[in-house]
Amino acid sequence: MSEKNTVTVRISATLEWPKLFEKDEMSDKYVATLINLKPGAVKILEAADMVVRDGKKEGEKQANYGRFIKASSKFEVRVYDGRPDEKCKTEDNPKGIPVGVRWDNQVRIGNGSKAMVELVVEDWTFKNTSGRGAYMNAVKIMELVELGGSDQFGADPF
Predict the structure, then answer these.
(1) 126-155 as b/e: b if 16+ CB within 10 A
(2) Confidence of residue 1 (pLDDT cuts 50, 70, 90)
(3) Which of 10, 30, 143, 153 could bridge to 73 as Cys pair (CB 3.0-4.6 Å)?
């Protein structure tokens, strides 16, 4: 059995189509597209031999993604709350970023939420194809855009 080239990285990203508490029906995995990656995050991923896609080259549907990757996990992703909280402010933590506070999974995470993401980047092989994948290990939500923030149709759409 050959050894996998495995690297753990942490990057900042904007989440698109995050499914962090329920598996995606198509892939049967927890998934998120990490979009608008900044040059530092792209450099980290490319150093881990990950292919970072360019939304402008992917067509109209993904033109606003900037540089992006798709990440997944077969296993439940650890999700933490990283939004500033006055109660967490200390001399060592002037921004009040909570540490180790698990996310309330009743609060739905929507497109545009900003997060720190820990990924395990490793080789994969399936039948006669192989590549390199990004697998989510943990996500820390820094800025929330709540899913379904308002009902566009109102209480009664008729």
Answers:
(1) eeeeeeeebbbbebbbbebeeeeeeeeeee
(2) very low
(3) 30
Cβ(141)–Cβ(21) under 8 Å?
no
Whole-number pLDDT of residue 94: 86
CB 146 within 8 A of CB 104: no
List, for residues 49-92, the tens digit of each pLDDT value. Answer: 999 999 989 888 888 999 999 999 999 999 999 998 888 888 88
Whether the Cβ atoms of residue 13 and residue 37 lie closer than 8 Å to each other: yes
Domains of the chain, earliest start first: 7-143 (2.40.50.140)
Sign of CA dihedral 80, 8, 145, 99: positive
Cα dihedral angle (25, 30, 35, 39), rounded to 10 degrees? -150
